[in-house]
Design goal:
By secondary structure, the chain is an alpha/beta fold. It has two helices and nine strands.
Length: 168
């Protein structure tokens, strides 16, 4: 990894002491009710369900075991419905996670790994550069599977069995 570059003229503040936590991801949907049924059907906890008289609807759900939540709804984002690609869900065991999702009616693709060698070959969200099956060495961070939600947003399962140093 290289040294982070600062934009010319930007303040030279040290952000290493400031905690930045990703807590919410917005997922663009066309049909709030269909998305609600999909995510609650996965067993995700409902944290908020808000609607107003002007047509605004928001739902926040949290996957089991996750500190981060997902928000979707009507008038929540200008992004086109189904345009989220590469939302990553970390799992301890890709096969167990696939089985659990399949049991809930989700069509999950077969496991795949990066044909360039996983972490060394670079991570790619799209369909290019995929090799079928688990990472041949069963390395942590190197085996994936994907599925789409009811709105077409693509989620990636990533198997992590051992964290990189410094990761929680």
């Amino acid at each position: 990894m290289g040294t982070p570059q600062r934009a010319e003229g930007s303040a030279q503040h040290d952000t290493t002491a400031v905690p930045f936590r990703l807590e919410v991801v917005v997922v663009p949907v066309a049909d709030h009710d269909r998305a609600r049924d999909f995510y609650t059907g996965l067993g995700w906890r409902v944290d908020a369900d808000v609607s107003t008289d002007d047509g605004y609807r928001l739902m926040q759900v949290t996957p089991p075991g996750s500190p981060a939540s997902v928000i979707f709804g009507t008038q929540v984002t200008a992004a086109p419905p189904g345009s989220a690609d590469g939302l990553i869900l970390v799992v301890d065991d890709i096969d167990t996670a696939r089985d659990a999702l399949t049991a809930r009616g989700v069509e999950v693709g077969e496991p795949f790994h990066d044909e360039g060698g996983g972490l060394a070959g670079g991570f790619r969200i799209g369909d290019e550069g995929r090799a079928p099956g688990h990472d041949p060495e069963r390395r942590s961070y190197a085996t994936y599977a994907s599925f789409h939600d009811s709105e077409g947003n693509r989620w990636i399962l990533q198997e992590i069995t051992e964290r990189l140093p410094g990761r929680v």
